[in-house]
Write the structure tokens for this entry.
Amino acid sequence: MLLVDDDPSLCDSIALGLRGRFALRSANGAAEALALFEAERWDVVVTDLRMRGMDGVELCQRLVGLDPDVPVLVLTAFGNVDSAIAAVRAGAFDFAQKPIELDDLALRLERAVAHRALRGEVAALRAALAAAQHCGELVGAHGSMLRLFDLVARGAASDATVLVVGESGTGKELVARALHAAGPRAGGPFVAVNCTAVPEGLLESELFGHVRGAFTDTRAERRGLLLEADGGTLFLDEIGDMPLGLQPKLLRALQDRRVRPVGGSGEVAFDARIVAATHRDLESLVEERRFREDLYYRLNVIQIAVPPLRARGGDVLLLAERFLDNFARRAGRPVPRLSAAAAERLLAYGWPGNVRELENCIERAVALGRGPELGLDDLPEKIRAYRPHAVLLPAEDPSEIAPLEEVERRYILRALEAVGGNKSEAALRLGLDRKTLYRKLERYAALALATSATNTPKP
């Protein structure tokens, strides 16, 4: 910390009060401060407003010009609001009024140092964005993403069927496109279909095609997507929502590599790599007899799990910087900086919608923002107001301590929520056998049902 004042007694008083909290050095006036600032690196500067020669506002402008990331705290006389406003406009991070309360000053300084550290992290991530590893349209520097990139690179060389799993919005289709682009079928078509978006009655025709006259008013035959993807890749998105009655037909086609159009009597060979994706827990669906086990194993030759955004650490800011650049350039505007306060909130938020939600958030901020910096006020309300919730509430009163079984119930349900309801993933993270987890969840559901019945008033 660099303390600037032409009153040695004030410097001594502050240095004594902050001893042990900050490594402090004082400068007698603005000229000496500038010389020290250019010679060394400082985490925070505190300067008095009224000094002989150059005042605190002009010094603040000079310091911020030399290092835009340094937080400058200006000391002003009590009630001098206009001077405080002038200091903030000059680039000051904060101001404190005299007479100085040392505890309040220390709190403001700690916040300023944290701000400086976060600005440094944002700058480092911006530099990392240029050097970050890419896999098609995927970008990331977190270890989980680097492992994913390696798996995609190895899986692309094979023609084996791939099952991409992960929460909605994590980029499963981007993984499928990266597999296609990096493999020997890159010159062929990439055909995608969402098994949820197509009505059940039309999905069979969409996949396998139909002959003329197969349906009322059908005057022309149609090649299905399996044939359209010949020589390339067919991406079956949300395969977990495929109707149960259609699953054996798809299994037969994948096994035989031949397809029979709806209403047709003959089969046609196809040569397409199959990549399927789902946000659902297929193993649970298999146990519930809502997804065929044989089809599951036919699809799950190579499994690629896409991590949720909340598990990717600093990749949140890495992606935010990328989206800022993309949307600002698309709008023909200068690329705004990401403020430290906004970066802090982006890191704290849980991102239930994953990368898709982050992209939407940044697009909104660029569209509505007007300054050179994306600040906290530019973020949606639910992100600004977000506070991480703990599984347990701190209990100072012994009567508030929950029984151990209740603690386990809360923790298991919170873990299940954190992995998007994927029971297999939750069991793995909790170190439980899947059947053990299922039994516990069934017991919780039965207890909830019994409690609800007990509390329901009788007519």
User: Anything to note?
Assistant: The two ends are 71 Å apart (CA to CA). The chain has four domains: 2-128, 134-305, 309-384, 398-455. Confidence is low (pLDDT under 50) at residues 391-395.
